[in-house]
């Protein structure tokens, strides 16, 4: 199954943990985790403070803090790499273990051991590359604060040390003979490859170089190596196998994957989602929607769809949206006699809207790896998301009508007024986000910091539902989730760079040669490709790898890149809920307390409607381009 943010791994660690050894490991683990917690919380709060103060200084005093970008980027690098290591220690990285879970226990245990050995190997190799990068770039200084550029490699080095220690701790807790046998086998294989490199390296020159990247990546992914590490392994295999790239490039391309100011908004949006869930903001929004939509045919399921649209516009995180709306609606749906599996399917399907409702993390990622404007993406996504939502609501209506499901009574005028007053303050969050961008108050990153501060004031000082301990726990969770996502993006950056060097984009263009001159066929092929890869890679890695390849092709054949980008986001979202391995479907099942088997069957008609919706958006560019044209934004 796909492993998800906030869901812990259940890999057993049964041996080597008792007595003195177990006590020492536990003490060391606590010290490492506490140190990481302090560093990450400081980096996240420091980044938030610097960005927020920069906006205030520019807006109120007319003075721009030019130096602010460099400390913020350093904080982002810290969150990406040390946060990624922290998420690994918490077993919160995304992975696929559908295959290994079906194996007999002895082979499953061997896969777990081999995964830790691969992580240890990657940590040692990347650490060596990062150290070379640190010393190799020592003479280069940043333009504003004259910080040594090589210091940006320090979080990567420290994270590799943490990962190596964690992998060793887990290996000591595994079946010792299995660890010894597989460890010796891995060392022998590596030595054999090194000694015979002159013989086999020429075989992988030219077109065969792609094999060096894809085979280790896919193979390690199938045995349960987390996605971010599998991407790094594919890149490392190319660096080692090609024999033409210096090892310092491994660290350089990985660091560059998170060296983008746009990505600074990602931790803020995740933190905003945590504040919404813990501070009662999501609950008030769902209640507001229930008053206005609950009397429709299919009542509470319609409420769920509209709530997902509204909440998506505040949190930016699909998993957070599902958790927020699902946890509020679950007990209400059961009390009213709704089918839990159908409700789970509606919850998962409606989360697809979150891909294009701003603020959206995939939108930020798409803007960071392409030339598309974040502001244009944000505005362009509203109507396509509404199209998806209306299609789902139509299906719910016909299903309810066929089953002769009753309706809830219409609310009174007093109920409508009470709910409206209660929902005004939460609804100001999207106004701040979108209005701030359109009015030029700040970038999406800067405006997102305002959303976090606003959410803190609303939840902590007005609703009094967010205490200090809850807030600190939310920051720690935010650091781990942000680190996991950014670590995947860093790995995907190195992976995508090696694919470019191996000329995969040109080969993909050749593969799509039969549809290259047909806009319709090209869009259809791209949709299928994103759904398939989004199912396997949990979306973001697929987006990072494929979007920079596909968008220039779309431009060449006359398709608007903005329109095409929105279509790709929706297709990626469909992949995330596609049974049996769609990551987001597992989140919905966990929230609604049901099984993937039952919910997967209920999901089928909704998948059909989602595919119809993405085709409708693809075939009618007006849905995407109308609002950007109205606000005179580039399309």
Explain what you see:
By secondary structure, the chain is an all-alpha fold. It has 2 domains: 238 residues, no CATH class; 368 residues, no CATH class. The protein has 28 helices and no strands.
Q: In summary, what is this structure?
A:
This protein has 635 residues and is mainly alpha-helical. It contains 28 helices and no strands.
Explain the layout of strands and helices.
Elements: H1 19-61, H2 69-89, H3 98-101, H4 105-136, H5 154-172, H6 176-195, H7 197-200, H8 209-222, H9 227-242, H10 248-256, H11 265-278, H12 281-293, H13 299-315, H14 318-335, H15 340-350, H16 361-369, H17 374-380, H18 382-402, H19 413-438, H20 444-462, H21 468-501, H22 504-511, H23 519-537, H24 540-556, H25 561-576, H26 583-592, H27 596-619, H28 622-630
N to C succession of SSEs: HHHHHHHHHHHHHHHHHHHHHHHHHHHH
- How many beta strands in the DSSP annotation? 0
Count of DSSP H/I helices? 28
Low-confidence stretches: 1-19
The percentage of residues in β strands lies in under 5%
**Total count of domains:** 2
- Gross morphology is globular
Rg, rounded, reads: 24 Å
Distance between the first and last residues' Cα: 38 Å
* Largest sheet, strands/sense/barrel: none
């Amino acid at each position: 199954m796909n492993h998800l943010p906030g869901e812990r791994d259940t890999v057993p660690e049964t041996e080597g943990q008792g007595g003195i050894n177990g006590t020492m490991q536990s003490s060391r683990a606590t010290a490492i985790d506490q140190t990481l917690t302090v560093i990450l919380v400081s980096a996240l709060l420091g980044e938030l403070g610097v960005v927020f103060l920069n906006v205030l200084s520019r807006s109120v005093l007319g003075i721009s803090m030019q130096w602010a970008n460099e400390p913020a980027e350093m904080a982002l690098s810290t969150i990406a790499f040390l946060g990624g290591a922290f998420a690994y220690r918490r077993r919160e990285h995304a992975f696929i273990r559908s295959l290994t879970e079906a194996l007999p226990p002895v082979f499953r245990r061997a896969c777990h051991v081999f995964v830790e050995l691969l992580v240890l190997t990657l940590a040692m190799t990347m650490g060596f590359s990062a150290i070379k990068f640190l010393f190799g770039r020592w003479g280069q200084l940043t333009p504003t604060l004259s910080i040594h550029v090589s210091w940006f490699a320090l979080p990567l080095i420290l994270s590799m040390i943490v990962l190596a220690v964690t992998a060793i701790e887990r290996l000591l807790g595994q079946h010792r003979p299995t660890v010894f046998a597989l460890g010796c086998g891995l060392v022998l294989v590596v030595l054999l490859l090194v000694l015979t490199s002159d013989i086999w390296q020429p075989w992988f020159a030219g077109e065969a170089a792609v094999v060096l990247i894809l085979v280790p990546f896919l193979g390690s992914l199938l045995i349960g190596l987390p996605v971010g590490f599998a991407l790094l392994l594919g890149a490392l295999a190319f660096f080692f196998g090609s024999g033409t790239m210096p090892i310092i490039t491994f660290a350089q391309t990985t660091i560059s994957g998170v060296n983008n100011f746009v990505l600074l908004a990602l931790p803020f949006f995740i933190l905003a989602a945590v504040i919404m869930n813990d501070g009662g903001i999501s609950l008030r929004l769902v209640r507001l929607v229930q008053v206005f939509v609950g009397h429709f045919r299919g009542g509470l399921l319609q409420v769920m769809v509209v709530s997902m649209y509204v909440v998506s516009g505040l949190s930016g995180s699909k998993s957070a949206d599902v958790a927020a709306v699902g946890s509020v609606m679950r007990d209400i749906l059961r009390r009213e006699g709704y089918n839990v599996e159908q409700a789970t399917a509606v919850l998962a399907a409606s989360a697809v809207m979150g891909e294009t409702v701003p603020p959206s993390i995939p939108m930020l990622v798409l803007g960071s790896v392409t030339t598309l404007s974040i502001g244009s993406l944000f505005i362009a996504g509203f109507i396509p998301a509404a199209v998806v939502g209306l299609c789902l609501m139509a299906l719910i209506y016909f299903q309810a009508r066929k089953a002769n499901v009753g309706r809830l009574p219409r609310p009174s005028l007093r109920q409508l007024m009470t709910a409206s007053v209660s929902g005004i303050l939460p609804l100001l969050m999207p106004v701040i986000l979108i209005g701030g961008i359109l009015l030029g108050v700040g970038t999406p990153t800067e405006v997102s910091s305002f959303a976090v501060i606003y959410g803190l004031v609303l939840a902590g000082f007005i609703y009094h539902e967010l205490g200090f301990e809850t807030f600190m726990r939310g920051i720690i969770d935010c650091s781990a989730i942000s680190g996991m996502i950014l670590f995947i993006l860093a790995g995907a950056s190195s992976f995508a760079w090696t694919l470019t060097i191996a000329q995969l984009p040109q080969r993909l263009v050749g593969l799509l040669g039969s549809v290259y001159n047909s806009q319709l066929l090209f869009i259809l092929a791209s949709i299928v490709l994103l759904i398939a890869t989004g199912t396997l890679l949990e979306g973001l890695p697929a987006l990072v790898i494929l979007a920079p390849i596909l968008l220039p092709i779309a431009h060449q054949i006359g398709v608007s890149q903005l329109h095409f980008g929105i279509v790709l986001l929706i297709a990626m979202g469909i992949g995330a809920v596609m049974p049996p391995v769609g990551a987001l479907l597992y989140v919905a099942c966990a929230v609604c307390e049901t099984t993937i088997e039952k919910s997967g069957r209920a999901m089928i008609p909704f998948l059909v409607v989602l595919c119809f919706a993405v085709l409708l958006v693809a075939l009618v560019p007006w849905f995407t381009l109308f609002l950007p044209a109205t606000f005179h934004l580039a399309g």
